[in-house]
Amino acid sequence: ITEANKCWQEIIKERPVTLSFGKYAQVIALQKLGKTDEAKQTLEEIEKSIPADYKDKPKKDMVNNYFLAGLIARARGETDKAKEMFQVVLEIIPNHQETVFEMFITK
After folding, report:
1. What is the pLDDT of residue 89?
2. How far apart are the first and last CA of the chain?
3. What is the 3-state secondary structure (H, E, C) of the chain?
4. pLDDT at position 79, please?
5. Quick one: pLDDT at residue 83?
């Protein structure tokens, strides 16, 4: 087992991860380990944690939800949707470092 795989395995170990961003790290690890069904299931759990009406609320109050929706879209290969969500974040916080990075790596 390679050193990278050991790191991915450590990320997905059984432990309580309640924050959606922590769960997203697990999704990436599961994808890297080829556990696509588990990754899809975890993405669905994350998506359920986003309020259904977040797009109807003031955008400035929903920055984290737009960012998370962008991450979910990118993980699913929906790059146009991901960029759209990231763009909303950048309209609210132009120098949001995480979003700038995600826009850069989303192709």
Report:
1. 93
2. 29
3. CCHHHHHHHHHHCCCCCCCHHHHHHHHHHHHHCCCHHHHHHHHHHHHHHCCCCHHHCCHHHCHHHHHHHHHHHHHCCCHHHHHHHHHHHHHHCCCCHHHHHHHHHCC
4. 95
5. 96
| CA gap 67, 47 in Å, rounded | 12
pTM of the shown model = 0.74
Query: What whole-number distance in Å separates Cα of residue 91 and Cα of residue 33?
Result: 35
Longest dimension (CA), the chain: 47
CB under 8 Å to 99, separation ≥6 — which residues?
67, 70, 86, 89, 90, 93
Q: Which residues of the chain have pLDDT under 50?
A: 16-18
